[in-house]
TrEMBL record:
Protein keywords: Oxidoreductase
Family per record: Belongs to the short-chain dehydrogenases/reductases (SDR) family.
Domain of life, per lineage: Bacteria
Protein name (database record): NAD(P)-dependent dehydrogenase (Short-subunit alcohol dehydrogenase family)
Pfam families (UniProt xref): adh_short_C2
Amino acid sequence: MITGADSGIGRAVALAFAREGADVLFTHLAEEEDEASKTSQLVEDAGRRAIAVSCDIRAEGNCRSLIEKAVGEFGRIDILVNNAAYQMSQPDGIEAISTEQFDRVMHTNLYGMFWLSKFALPHIPEGGSIINSTSVQAYKPSPHLLDYAMTKGAIVTFTQGLAQMVIDRGIRVNAVAPGPVWTPLIPATLPDTVEFGKQSPLGRPAQPVEMAPAYVFLASPQASFITAEIVNATGGTPLP
């Protein structure tokens, strides 16, 4: 199960898991039906089942219903990828961040992840995984993305704390911290994208497909000794 997989990293992760033999249930926003159909087609072309669900994870009831649907379709949830996120650049500083924007960022990036993890855990068997999407912003916050960076720092803490909480259940919790990645979110939320990604030591943004293998690895038996970890995929930017 993957949130926010109508495009970008989520879509790439959905396809990568499908190619490894996984059926995929993923979420998308109501206005992204066409893009969700493209993700479904990619998963089905890989020979696996795709279930696209229009879902606003900012509401607790929606998260509960989403888990119930996944369990109803598959009987269990082997892997939960909390990937959905929202950001909006505010170059004019904290004064420009409205309460409406702040609430949207917090509820999308944190509340949804918390509720979905909480409701999914009883249905994740031993050997299963929760994988969260954090960011280089958790460690090197850009001032114009203050609220977004706050949530990504919280995701690191949540990942490390939850991993210790569920380790006795045989469930692993990890996260991936991408650096700059070119996704549809970037031109939609940043005023100037000409220099985007050039600050990375590799000198360019990543493509979503370059992130997907990290998620597959963390869910694989080869990563059975890895939990409470953050896999940094930052294009060479050193992180703690």
